[in-house]
Amino acid sequence: MANFSKSNVPQFSVEVYQNEFLPEGGREVNAIVTVASTGGGTIGGAPFTTATTAPTHIPGRPPGAAVVIMVDCSGSMDYPPTKMRNARDATAAAIDTLRDGVAFAVVGGTHIAREIYPGNGRLATADSQTRTQAKEALRKLSAGGGTAIGTWLRLADRLLGAADVPIRHGILLTDGRNEHESPEDLRSALTACAGRFTCDARGVGTDWEVKEVTSIASALLGTADIVADPANLAADFTQMMENAMGKEVADVALRLWTPVGVEIRFVKQVAPTVEELTGRRTEAGPRAGDYPTGSWGDESRDYHVCVRVPEAGVGQEMLAARVSLIVPDREGGAPQVLSQGLVRAVWTDDMAASTSINPQVAHYTGQAELAQVIQQGLDARKSGDADGATAKLGRAVQLAAASGNADTAKLLAKVVDVVDEATGTVRLKAKVAEADEMTLETRSTKTVRVKK
């Protein structure tokens, strides 16, 4: 069994990529903030860079974790019967991937949520005995009933909330639409669980609703994906659990401080996926706000920060924003600052300097547009607007090619016939496999990093 604990202490660094030069009267400042944990990921250099390069670490951070696996047991999981068997096998594989000492539970989800293991509102502690017991208990997983995902999440929240650990994580599998509770009930559950645990969500087969599954992952700062063939569930669950076991630091936030007169236009994650964070701000003192980023392991992520500064004349400069990475103190003290980066504004009459777009900013602006036009194109296609769908998906093909996003380009090619990728000239395919369309929609927010 793989041991995913690390002997080294987690380290964080923040780097800021921007063109800090503005023309006289210019007001919009854009920056890409790259956050790296434990040296993970690749960080490329770029012109117009302000960076804090010295990483910081978190002393005494306990490695404890708790995981709840939520498995759809609604009646549709019996069609075909192999689907339920694959779900049991996948859950067993995930249990085998738990490291010793991790608290865990298995929940069976229908129109109600049931504790499959260990039961009585408790979490088990992973070791060879409890893993064996949990896999034996998976025999209780049988298909029958409806689907009310909010009840699954609320039970997972109660179980995880009883664990005194920094890392709380859920894994959720569904094969159908959330038909036995209202959309408001699901949104209410997500609001209640947000910030309490992270959750990866998976849809198996093709009878589930993409926007439901992606909204769960988005609200709970996890990942979403499709497993079109149930036979691939075990490999996917193993990978998800390996990633969860690699998380070392929870509740990390991006804190943005801005001077008087500076307005925040938006804050969004742009790699490895596009995730809007602007509306998730919580106030953190005068002119400061925190944006949640969830749990971190050995990885790197990119964020796009856009602010509007007051007008100024040539030769003037100002600090447009200070970006800090913070984590709460588990003893109730002041949050710890892990690393910082500065976003600057300098007004110049040098036209070449002020009109140059930083490569990182340009790249991720395109990736955010790519995710948007895919969604718009698929929505237009579903509504019968062939011209709108062709235009949007053609633009998506053009953006995917220009940015080197080969995975998205391959998915697009299953929905449209590409005539000329450089100009975005495409034709809608007459017949598209449902799994191909759902895969494109589910993975539309996945991005690639800037080409070197």
Explain this structure to me?
This protein has 452 residues and is α+β, with helices and mostly antiparallel strands. The protein is 30% helix and 31% strand. The chain contains eleven helices and 21 strands. Strand 9, helix 4 and strand 10 form a beta-alpha-beta unit. The longest helix is centred in the last third of the chain and has 24 residues, at 359-382. The relative contact order is 0.15.
Descriptive labels:
globular; 452 residues; alpha+beta; 6-stranded antiparallel β-sheet
Based on helices, strands and strand pairing, what is the structural class? alpha+beta
Q: Please tally the helical runs, counting DSSP H or I stretches of 4 or more residues.
A: 11
Task: Tally the beta strands.
Answer: 21
Tertiary shape: globular
Strand content: 25-35%
Largest sheet: 7 strands, mixed
What is the residue-averaged pLDDT? 92
Which residues form runs of ≥5 with pLDDT under 50? 1-8, 39-62
N-to-C span:
37 Å
Share in helix: 25-40%
Rg (CA only): 23 Å
